[in-house]
Amino acid sequence: QVQLVESGGGLVQAGGSLRLSCAASGRTFSTYELGWFRQAPGKERAFVASIRWSDNSAYYADSVKGRFTVSRDAAKNTAFLQMNSLKPEDTAVYHCATRDSYLSQYDSWGQGTQVTVSS
Description:
It contains no helices and 11 strands. By secondary structure, the protein is an all-beta fold.
């Protein structure tokens, strides 16, 4: 299992920026991919972005393309989600999660960090 701890959430005005961090520990050597997800009140959890551990390939939901950037610091086993041009609809609890292969489910999850964007 991988242990994940998110940080960096907060309150920001529309158009502002935040940078989320996800610190990983434990069996990080088995990680295939790290994903960022978000869940707004009353809504289903939604995929935001992911980064493949082997080659840093990144993938994004259409709703955040061009505004969010996912990256990682391999030496520190930490991933980041840089969020720019934030909109009120980006308000949610953001979670990071990992999976061991492209065939498996994301099975290690962080506790989440709240992002609130005011209009």
